[in-house]
């Protein structure tokens, strides 16, 4: 199990070479995290990458552990948060262990998100919260001028696609991801979580050559665990 774009992702994150649209992601994450009290809470950052989001929760008082499949990314993340390497979707944590789980920009890069969602539900406390983000299924393709295009005819197909990151240093790289329609994610979540909220932040049009649209890039959500049992 690996993520082959990890070195390029690391270079982008560590050298602050994000494309402008990435700032929307950062702003949204900061806004979302401010809504919760992380003091002395246990947080799992699943697919933590270089650990930057986990670090925000740590600074807010949480005990954070990041897990990831990438040795390269974990070697940097461990300077920020506690980390463990994953070799399968299964973590070694006890049932009902975490108060919060972050799963930012991971579900669309894994081949079987249902297995991940199931595992996240297992290790989340019944009162816990899952905070997640994916590439929005209505997200756009970019040419080198960052021009908007969305091909509706392909929406319902589950496909491997490429996301292009046009970096500030005029270089770019591509990363594979899985496009899946919204109904796929809804069904994948529904046996394990109740989705409490969905946010669809639009990108500022000033970043794009075409001013006609306010394009969407990310879908953010929060979810609570489905707790089975006697409700009487
Ligand atoms: C797009 S990066 C997002 C990193 C970080 N969560 C963030 O928001 O900055 C995707 C991350 O998912 C990790 N990843 C890929 N496959 C995974 C899997 N099967 N289980 C856990 N993490 C995985 C990658 O190594 C990478 O760190």
From TrEMBL:
In terms of InterPro entries, this protein maps to: Methyltransf_11 (IPR013216), Methyltransf_Superfamily (IPR050508), SAM-dependent_MTases_sf (IPR029063)
Q: Which domain of life is it from?
A: Archaea
Any single biological process term in GO: methylation
Molecular function as annotated in GO:
S-adenosylmethionine-dependent methyltransferase activity
**Transferase found in the keyword field:** yes
- Pinpoint the Methyltransferase type domain residues: 44-132
Q: Which UniProt keywords apply?
A: Methyltransferase, Transferase
Please tell me whether the keyword Methyltransferase is annotated for this protein.
yes
The protein, known as: Class I SAM-dependent methyltransferase
**Species name:** Candidatus Iainarchaeum sp
